[in-house]
Every structure is written in structure tokens, then in C-alpha cells.
Amino acid sequence: QVALLDVDICGPSIPKMMGLEGEQVHQSGSGWSPVYVEENLGVMSVGFLLSSPDDAVIWRGPKKNGLIKQFLRDVDWGEIDYLIVDTPPGTSDEHLSIVQYLSAAHIDGAVIITTPQEVSLQDVRKEINFCHKVKLPIIGVVENMSGFICPKCKNESHIFPPTTGGAEKMCQNLNVSLLGKVPLDPQIGKSCDKGQSFLSEVPESPATASYRSIIQRIEEYCHQHHFPEEKMI
Amino acid sequence: FLPERSNLTGVRHILLVLSGKGGVGKSTISTELALSLRHSGKKVGILDVDLCGPSIPRMFRVQDNDVHQCDSGWVPVFVDQDKSISLMSIGFLLEKPDDAVVWRGPKKNALIKQFVADVAWGDLDFLIVDTPPGTSDEHISTVEALRPYKPLGAVLVTTPQAVSVGDVRRELTFCKKMGLRVLGIVENMSGFVCPHCSECTNIFSKGGGEELAKHAGVPFLGCVPLDPQLSQSLEEGRDFIQEFPKSSAFPALTHIAQQILDGTSQRSS
User: Fold this and answer.
1) What stretches pass through the bilayer (chain B) (predicted)?
2) What is the ipTM of this complex?
3) How many domains does chain B have?
4) Chain B residues lying within 8 Å of A122, measured CB to CB
5) What's the pLDDT tens digit per position in A11-37?
6) What is the sign of the dihedral through the CA atoms of B91, B94, B95 and B100?
């Protein structure tokens, strides 16, 4: 049972990616109802509260924090196995607030996404420092857009070159796990735009294999940290 | 109320580079626009108001530079002896490059006000303001602080796919609500030509930026393809416009700069 909470208040992408554009949030006695993709996958996003795709959410920090609090307090998720929180880029209000408001619950950790080049890594190191500052455990780093294999000649191009060793080197230096690398695949963007599951639509893509391996490692991490006594076996 | 003499008095044109979406190439476009305008003989400044993820210093290989004070405020960092491009970014103010700026809105707003008022730019033809993604504190504060100086307008950057365009539509609404003219839309990462066999693959789809421009009635400034030489240049802080005139992104990037220049000469006449 999975819940996906989109706290990117200015740029909510999750509704579109899940094929839920145009859906609205319903209220009931027990709170706000998440919008369900499937029976076991519920979603919440500010996107569902906007009436037009042109509507901009031009809010300063405090108002954004208020909505995030509401999302956590008023959404009736029911019993869930995983709550995944998608965040905007940065180390600001949304990030501080979500960590603060969830501090009473137990956050297993953060998955940090980067692309291979130093321009991205230099920001990701800051994000790693943010996690240390707020005592948020780091599950690991994913190197996205990691290489492109030309569909015609099968040669690889490093469109976003790992000039300083990519995520691999950074993870070694900072002692965090590299969960995996996901190559560029035009089908990923296409699936997201159509609101379809890339994993189901293109099961044979090398990117699918990468995603699945990364997801498995995340599940293992969460399982180990929740049931430490099982490690004794 | 326009102050009689301020640090922006000598700046002829101010333009903002915006996007609703992260990672689409705002800082890249800001950098290449500055380099192209410099190539046309202009003096350019870049004000980097991305406080959490300041990318501009590294793109000019001056990430280790310090900022000094003078009587009128902060001296911007010049990228070379030429002094034709100058920069201001929080990146120069961090003690260590990996230091995270974990600030809520009010503290960010205070620094942005200072950045807009207290950098001693001197005489510039163009001041380019590079922004973080979104429509929040940084954007509201920057536009409000710049309003008395009548910015030229905003260049909006998107990648071709719908998920990016969806956020940039909201950014257009932001511009409208804030009274900021839209100079045009750039569709970045638009197609990739394989350097080995020349096959073109639309990795991030194609056409979304152009369609949005048409739908919104704003100028379309062009498609910039994915170009590993451009990425490499930015990594090394090199002058792509000077050094790679034959590379695939060069024509599109210089065309964007030309349209901006044409726009300003039209306005003067």
C-alpha cells in the first residue's frame, strides 16, 4: 500500500506523471481523500487543488508550509506501507517543513537524485549536508541521465559528462551509498508525459532494469532498518 | 520611486531568466546569453539569485573567488582581465563550497534585496538575473526589488516535454500577474544528434516549448539541442561561444542573443 505526496507546491508534476491530470480532491468526514491511481497507490498534490493548468501558486514560504502541514494532517491515507514524498529542488521551506512535521513519525531516510556532471553534484553535496544538518538518514544517491545509447549505432554518449567522477566518486568521498545509475531513454519522458507507467510500458529497457534494482535496494534498506532483529539470522 | 543614483543606474537593460521547472537549463542559458552578448561587444553582468543551488560561478571557472567591498557596496567578480562579464552569486559568499544554505523565505528575501541594491555593477549593457525554479520568495522579491528599474522582461526556459511545459505555463501566469514582459520561450535540450552516426533522437520529446509559445502568444526564441560539448564547456568554465562555433548548440544560442539585441534596438528607436 503506497502513498505518494507531492510537496512541490510551485511545480507539481506528479498528477500528470500518474495520469491523474484534472482530478480533484474530495473531502469526507475523515479528511481529504487521496486520488487513487490504483487501489494500492494513492496520490496527493497541490496540482489537484488548481482549477486550470495555467494557475500559478505564487506563495511565499509560510503559506507553502501551511499547505504542507495540511497535507500531512488532513489527508486520510489509511494504512500504508510506504509514504513517498517528492520534493522541489533546494534546501528551503518545503524541505525544512516536511522534515520538521514528520519528525514525530519515523522517516526511514532520503533518496537523493543527481545527474553525472559537477554542476549537479555541487548542489547535491549541499543537499547531503542539509540531510546531515537535520539528522535525516540518507538511503543513498541515484545518478540519473547517466549516459545515452544511440538507438541506431548503439554507441554511448555522455551528454551530461561525469567530469569529476560522477555520483560514484562523490558517494565514495562522502561515504553514502550509490543506489544505481539510470541511463537516458526517450521512452521515460514519453511515459511521464502520457501518465503511463514506464516500468510496465517498456519492461525491456535498460533503464527499467536500473529502476528495479534501485527500488529493490531501497526496499532492503527500509526492511533492514525497520526489523533490525532479522539481521541476526 | 526611482532613486536618483543607485548601483543599477548604469545598467541599460535588465532581463530575468525564469522557468517553472528545475534542471531545464536556466543557468546554462544565462551563461551562454552572457557570453554571446559579450561576443557582440556588450558589457554584461549576471546576478545569480539561486541561493540554494548557485551554479553561475563554476560555469565561469571563478568558483574560488571572493567578493570584496567598496564604498558603494559589493564589487562583482570579473571573469577575466577583459572585465566585460561580471558576476554576483551567493556561491562567492560561502565559506566552503558544499555549505548548504538552509534558509526560509524571509532570510532569502533579505539577501536578494541586498543583491539587487548593493552590487556596484558600474556601467553595463545587460544585467541578466538567473533564478531558481519556481514562483516563490526569490521570484517575488527579485521582481519587486527590480520593478523601479523597469526590467526589459523575462526569458522562459523549458525542455520539450509536457511535464516541463506544464510548469512553465504557470511561470507565464507569474509573469502576467507581476507585470513582467515575456521576451520569449527557449526550448532547451531539444533533440540530440549522435556524434557517431548523426541520428537525431528526441530524448526529452520535441516541440512543447514552441507550442506553448504559440498558445500563449509570446515569441519563440528557438530550440537548443543537447550538446555534450556545451555540457563539457560549462563543467570546465570555458567560453563555449568563443571556442566551439561549429558545435550543434552554437547557432541556436547566438540566435537567442541576436533576438534579444534586436528587441532592445527596436525599443530604442
Assistant:
1) none
2) 0.93
3) 1
4) 55, 58, 97-98
5) 999 999 999 999 999 988 999 999 999
6) negative
